[in-house]
Design a protein that fits this description.
Length: 157
C-alpha cells in the first residue's frame, strides 16, 4: 500500500483571488491570505465588472446615451475600487503582499485571462457570487473557471 503523499505549496506563489464582495468571496480572500502567509506568497485581488462599457457604434446611439453609459461605467469602477480597498485593508494587517486588479467583461473569461497574464499558481474563487440567480441562466462562474483553468482552482464554500 502506498503512503499518502505530502501536500506542499510552492514558496513565493502567486494567488489570484476573484472577489465580488459576497460571503464566499470574502472567505476566499481569508483562505488565500492564510495560504500566502504560510508560503511567502502574494495575492492579486481581482474584481470583474460584468459590463462592457464601450458602446457598439450605431446611428441609434446618441451622445446622451454614450455619456450616460460612460458615467455608469465610472460608477461601477469606483464601487469596485471601494470593494477592493476594503479587501486590501483586511489583508494588509497580515503582512502579505497584495495588489488590486479590476477588469470589465465576462467574469470567468477575465479570471482566466488575468491568471494567464500574471502566471498565477492558484486561483481562489467563491462557490457562488452575489448573482446566484444568474447561475440558472448562464452557468456558474466557478464551474467555467474550473473547466478551463490551466492552474489549480480552489473553490471556497
Amino acid at each position: 500500500m502506498m503512503d499518502n503523499p505530502k501536500i506542499t505549496s510552492k514558496k513565493g506563489m502567486k494567488i489570484l483571488v476573484a472577489t465580488d464582495g459576497s460571503e464566499y468571496a470574502r472567505k476566499g480572500v481569508e483562505y488565500a491570505t492564510t495560504l500566502a502567509m504560510a508560503n511567502d506568497g502574494e495575492l492579486i485581488l481581482l474584481h470583474v465588472i460584468p459590463y462592457v462599457p464601450e458602446p457598439i457604434p450605431s446611428l441609434w446611439v446618441s451622445e446622451e446615451v454614450e455619456a450616460r453609459d460612460k458615467k455608469y461605467a465610472e460608477e461601477l469602477y469606483k464601487d469596485a475600487e471601494s470593494l477592493l480597498a476594503e479587501e486590501l485593508e483586511r489583508v494588509s494587517t497580515t503582512g502579505v503582499k497584495a495588489t488590486n486588479w479590476i477588469e470589465f467583461g465576462e467574469p470567468a473569461e477575465k479570471i482566466l485571462e488575468v491568471a494567464d497574464k500574471i502566471s498565477a499558481d492558484l486561483i481562489v474563487i467563491g462557490v457562488r457570487g452575489k448573482s446566484a440567480w444568474k447561475k440558472i441562466i448562464l452557468g456558474s462562474v466557478s464551474d467555467k473557471v474550473i473547466d478551463k483553468a490551466k492552474v489549480p482552482v480552489l473553490v471556497i464554500r
